[in-house]
């Protein structure tokens, strides 16, 4: 029997308890051990809940119990999670976490401690909820040099953009609906401004490229400026607008960014809609691969946490994760990143075409009949700096959205 | 240093050599060992090829060399692969294979021998080419009871159906084009009749459900009867026709089949086109998950084989695969499987509607303006037996295609 302690009895924590109860037999069989929840750490009490008898309020009770071999950390936030997780690892207990802030900030150090202790620090649930992506990167894509990871990593913003697309609604209306349905937080900033996706792509990039990618270094733009009109242009081009979190190796340079992109219907992420997440990767021998599923939610996230618990139980004295170095990966300045841009401009296309040509050279015009007194166009491939310079020469740019080919 | 022997220097075998050479440094780093190809077994010689100095014609040379710790079997076919692999495992050498026939037929026994020897029998490349699916089923989806696996598991047929869809061509024309391009074999039977997909779903089902699923027991129907007209109906319904290999748990019954299905645009497999494969799974706590990528091809398949070699090298004296029991899983009679059917019928819809209603009850009519003197309809949910019985009462059924919702 392996005893575990669960830190936090919130949404994911209660999901972990539920999953372990629901699939008890098959989980124990796969772990080759009986998994037993001995403690649940929470500041609150849960009178009437069967979990109450396992509730403790002091982390040291769990830390000092030698019976406890695996800690599940599902509190979220850097502190006190970091202090708890680090002391657990140093005490020789494996840790499974869903905490993206913790992994993005301290993943390198915690992986290193786990390696030294010959135990495990696992974090499948920190990116993509229930979608297996950390373990495939760690142990499936090992024959490849990964040169791109691009994901739809935030379910809330994907739900909002999908709903705007399918129902023609504007951002504010859909956000309110998402909040009412519990798909968006009352304070939606972390989602809609791209901060959540940014931490997740930092984790994936660090793992894929082997060096610490600091999320503070990643250029991040949210979806708050995307309007119902932008979506009309997207549809008329047969494209979709998605919040992509992307990192790419181009020669010896590494680029990472989070921003809304126009993607075509041939892109594997095009049909990832609603609250689903999708993660696309490209390997130099494997080619394209994509993983799709529920990127959040109580049970899918708990499923990933419990799969980590099974793996930790199967590898009690054997470290299985690749490390990434704490040496920082220097990201290239995104001003040098090259792509096409879609630009929306006020005025009449015919009247302004000469001016546009003068500044942008050859462009591809895009018009939506119902949108009067404005038009759109697609530029040739430009660096961000070149685009910026040209855009400053033009009056009346309403919006610009990057294009991912 | 770990020495390996590669059995077979065909497409995949030469791909394995290429991948190991191309990504040598990162592969050795991830394996924590230098991987060295010591022998390549082939009946042929390859004068001028750098591999020639490693070519041997006698398997015993490899078997009897204690230096060789890992065997890569990429010959295909049951014999002599089975004899070679079994004796390698019994001699304490781990085996990595891309051979679906071998795994479908003898997987249970070979996994058991590897378990007893405390080594590994790995077969990521046997299903879905470069797509990680065996390892995720083995070590990521371990918190779940899998109740469905449905895949587009054959790139040739998916290419044919995609091309028929996008270009409106008929089966024979596209097959010839696929053969000319090397996407289809000169003898295409194993692909177009569904036999290849059948072996692959047998492997996935055995692994997911824990008991041997014999591929001979799986009802299998190919795509040779799908016509350009069927595709026109599919388009008019907003659906796609895909060759699905599917196994499902319904209560205590297990169903498995390979057949062309109509799927709607909301299905995660809808946009898996051309030679790509996609594998959809549903877990009782995870919900939906889908894996997408190159299902065949020299380098993607070799990438999966080499990832297995890395895993075998990292687990030299530790067995990591779940077993499945050699006790056969009794599949339910597909006559009891329930679904809607799309039926194409000759004649005039209006004239025949009363007759159709009498036999099939409420149906949903589907017409394609350019197709005269015929019409289509979608039945209510029926068992295969019920459909069969009703269909026998009607004259002039041109085709029927199952619908996957």
TrEMBL record, chains A, B:
Its EC number is 1.1.1.3. InterPro entries: Asp/hSer_DH_NAD-bd, HDH, HDH_cat, HDH_CS, NAD(P)-bd_dom_sf. Keywords: Amino-acid biosynthesis, Methionine biosynthesis, NADP, Oxidoreductase, Sodium, Threonine biosynthesis. It catalyses: L-homoserine + NADP(+) = L-aspartate 4-semialdehyde + NADPH + H(+). Residues 132-310 form the Homoserine dehydrogenase catalytic domain. Pathway: Amino-acid biosynthesis; L-threonine biosynthesis; L-threonine from L-aspartate: step 3/5; Amino-acid biosynthesis; L-methionine biosynthesis via de novo pathway; L-homoserine from L-aspartate: step 3/3. GO terms for molecular function: homoserine dehydrogenase activity; NADP binding. Residues 8-124 form the Aspartate/homoserine dehydrogenase NAD-binding domain. NADP(+) binds at residues 7-14. GO terms for biological process: methionine biosynthetic process; threonine biosynthetic process. L-homoserine binds at residue 185. It comes from Candidatus Galacturonatibacter soehngenii. This is Homoserine dehydrogenase. NADPH binds at residue 100. Belongs to the homoserine dehydrogenase family. Transmembrane segments: none annotated. The active site is at 200 (proton donor).
């Amino acid at each position: 029997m392996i005893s575990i302690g669960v830190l936090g009895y919130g949404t994911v924590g209660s999901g972990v308890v539920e999953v372990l109860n629901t699939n008890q037999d098959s989980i124990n069989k796969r772990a080759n051990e009986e998994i037993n929840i001995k403690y649940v750490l929470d500041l609150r009490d849960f009178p009437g809940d069967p979990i109450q008898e396992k509730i403790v309020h002091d982390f040291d009770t769990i830390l000092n119990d030698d019976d406890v071999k695996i800690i599940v950390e599902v509190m979220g936030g850097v502190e006190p999670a970091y202090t708890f997780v680090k002391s657990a690892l140093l005490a020789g207990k494996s840790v499974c976490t869903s905490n993206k802030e913790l992994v993005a900030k301290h993943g390198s150090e915690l992986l290193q401690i786990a390696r030294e202790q010959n135990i495990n620090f696992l974090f499948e649930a920190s990116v993509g909820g229930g979608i297996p992506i950390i373990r495939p990167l760690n142990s499936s894509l090992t024959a490849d040099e990964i040169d791109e990871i691009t994901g739809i990593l935030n379910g809330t913003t994907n739900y909002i953009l999908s709903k705007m697309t399918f129902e023609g609604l504007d951002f504010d209306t859909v956000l309110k609906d998402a909040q009412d349905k519990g798909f968006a937080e009352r304070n939606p900033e972390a989602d809609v401004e791209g901060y959540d996706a940014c931490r997740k792509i930092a984790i994936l990039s660090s793992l894929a490229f082997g060096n610490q990618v600091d999320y503070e270094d990643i250029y991040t733009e949210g979806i708050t400026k995307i309007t119902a009109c932008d979506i009309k242009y997207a549809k008329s081009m047969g494209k979709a607008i998605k919040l992509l979190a992307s990192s790419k190796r181009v020669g010896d340079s590494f680029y990472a960014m989070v921003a809304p992109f126009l993607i075509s219907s041939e892109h594997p992420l095009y049909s990832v809609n609603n609250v689903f997440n999708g993660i696309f990767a490209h390997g130099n021998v494997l080619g394209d691969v994509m993983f799709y599923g529920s990127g959040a939610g109580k049970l899918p996230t708990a499923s990933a946490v419990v799969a980590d618990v099974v793996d930790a139980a199967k590898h009690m004295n054997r470290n299985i994760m690749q490390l990434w170095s704490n040496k920082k990966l220097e990201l290239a300045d995104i001003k040098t990143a090259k792509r096409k841009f879609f630009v929306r401009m006020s005025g009449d296309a015919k009247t302004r075409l000469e001016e546009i040509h003068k500044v942008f050279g050859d462009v591809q015009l895009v018009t939506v009949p119902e949108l009067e007194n404005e038009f759109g166009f697609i530029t040739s491939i430009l660096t961000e700096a070149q685009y910026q310079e040209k855009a400053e020469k033009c009056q009346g740019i309403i919006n610009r959205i990057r294009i991912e080919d």
